[in-house]
UniProtKB/TrEMBL annotation:
Protein name, entry field: Peroxidase
Stored Gene3D superfamilies: 1.10.520.10, Peroxidase, domain 2
Main localisation: secreted
Binding site for Ca(2+) 1: 56, 58, 70
Residue ranges with Low complexity bias: 21-47
Enzyme Commission numbers on file: 1.11.1.7
Domain Plant heme peroxidase family profile: 54-304
UniProtKB keywords: Calcium, Disulfide bond, Heme, Hydrogen peroxide, Iron, Metal-binding, Oxidoreductase, Peroxidase, Secreted, Signal
One GO term (biological process): hydrogen peroxide catabolic process
Role: Removal of H(2)O(2), oxidation of toxic reductants, biosynthesis and degradation of lignin, suberization, auxin catabolism, response to environmental stresses such as wounding, pathogen attack and oxidative stress.
Originating species: Kalanchoe fedtschenkoi (Lavender scallops)
CDD domains according to UniProt: secretory_peroxidase (cd00693)
Sequence positions that bind heme b: 174
Length: 306
C-alpha cells in the first residue's frame, strides 16, 4: 500500500462499527480520540513502551524458545506496562476483529499519551501491519544508546530521515518520566561528573545511593523535577543549566551542531512542538509494513498461528 493510501486519523477516539445498508456489521471504521486513561498511575511509566515508536510492533512480541525479544534486552530496560496495549487491543478486537494492527495501536497510543501530557495533538496516518519477528539482534544497530556520542546519535536518526532540529525535538520527550539509576550511576560513581550542576548532585546521589544498583529495584530520578508530568520545553532550560541526567542530554546542550536548536526550543515551546510533531510523523512512517505485508496480530505479544 503506497503511503498516499494511508488513512489519517481524526481527532475523535472511539472505535465504532459502520453498518451496511443490509444492517450487517460487515465493515469497521476506527477513529482515534483523546480519551483519558482509566488506570491513571501518577507516573509516566504508563506510557513508557509507547515513547519508542516501532512501525511493525516487533517491540511488543514476547521471547520464544528460539529468540530473545526486543523488549527483554538491556537496551529496553525500564519499559513496562505493556498490559495497557493488550487491553486496548482486546477492546478493538471485540468491535473490529482482524482490522486494526498492534503497530497502529502502539503509534496512536503514543500520540494520545503525548496529548494527555500537555503536548501537541499530532494527526498520524494509519494502515500499518504487524511484523512476525522481534529483531533484538539488530536493535543496537539502529537505536542509539544514552551514552553514545552525538555523532552516532545524529547519524542513526539521519538514516531514518530525522534531521538535527527533529532529533533535538524528539529528545525533548525526556521532559517527562524518569531515568533509572542503572542508566546514570556512571556519572556519579566512582567520581561525580564535574559538568553536572552542583545544585543537582545531592538530589541525584540521594535517589541513586548505590554505585551498583539492583536492576530489579525501582530506583530512579525524575527527568524534570519542575514539571515531571508535563511535556514542555523546560527540559531544554534544564540541560542548558547542566541538569541533564543522561550523557546524551548533556551533549545535546553542548555540541555545536545541536546547541543552537536547544536554545531556540528553550525560548519557544511553539517551535519545540512544531519540530516535535514534524519529526514524530517522519518516525512513525519509517519503513512500515502495509498492504499484504506482515499480518494483523490477534494478540500483540505473539504472532498469529498459521
Amino acid at each position: 500500500m503506497p503511503i498516499r493510501a494511508w488513512r489519517t486519523t481524526s481527532t475523535r477516539t472511539r472505535v465504532r462499527r459502520r453498518r451496511t445498508s443490509s444492517g450487517s456489521r460487515s465493515s469497521c471504521c476506527t477513529s482515534v480520540t483523546r480519551t483519558p486513561p482509566s488506570h491513571g498511575s501518577g507516573t509516566s511509566s504508563t506510557t513508557a513502551p509507547l515513547s519508542r515508536v516501532n512501525c511493525d510492533a516487533s517491540l511488543l512480541l514476547d521471547s520464544t524458545r528460539r529468540s530473545l525479544s526486543e523488549k527483554e534486552t538491556d537496551r529496553s530496560f525500564g519499559q513496562r506496562n505493556f498490559r495497557y496495549l493488550d487491553t486496548i487491543k482486546e477492546a478493538v478486537e471485540r468491535e473490529c476483529p482482524g482490522v486494526v494492527s498492534c503497530a497502529d495501536i502502539l503509534v496512536l497510543s503514543g500520540r494520545e499519551g503525548i496529548a494527555a501530557l500537555g503536548g501537541p495533538y499530532i494527526p498520524l496516518k494509519t494502515g500499518r501491519r504487524d511484523g512476525r519477528k522481534s529483531r533484538a539482534e539488530i536493535l543496537e544497530q539502529y537505536l542509539p544508546d544514552h551514552n553514545e556520542s552525538m555523532t552516532v546519535v545524529l547519524d542513526r536518526f539521519s538514516k531514518m530521515g530525522i534531521d538535527t532540529p527533529g532529533l533535538v525535538a524528539l529528545l525533548g520527550s525526556h521532559s517527562v518520566g524518569r531515568t533509572h539509576c542503572v542508566k546514570l550511576v556512571h556519572r556519579l560513581y566512582p567520581e561525580v561528573d564535574p559538568v553536572i550542576n552542583p545544585d543537582h548532585i545531592g538530589h541525584m546521589l540521594h535517589k541513586c545511593p548505590d554505585p551498583i544498583p539492583d536492576p530489579k529495584a525501582v530506583q530512579y530520578v525524575r527527568n524534570d523535577r519542575g514539571t515531571p508530568m508535563i511535556l514542555d520545553n523546560n527540559y531544554y532550560r534544564n540541560i542548558l543549566d547542566n541538569k541533564g541526567l543522561l550523557l546524551v542530554d548533556h551533549q545535546l546542550a553542548t555540541d555545536k551542531r545541536t546547541r543552537g536548536y536547544v536554545k531556540k526550543m528553550a525560548k519557544s515551546q511553539e517551535y519545540f512542538f512544531k519540530e516535535f510533531s514534524r519529526a514524530l510523523r517522519i518516525l512513525t512512517e519509517n519503513n512500515p509494513l502495509t498492504g499484504d505485508e506482515g499480518e494483523i496480530r490477534l494478540q500483540c505479544s505473539v504472532v498469529n498461528k498459521h
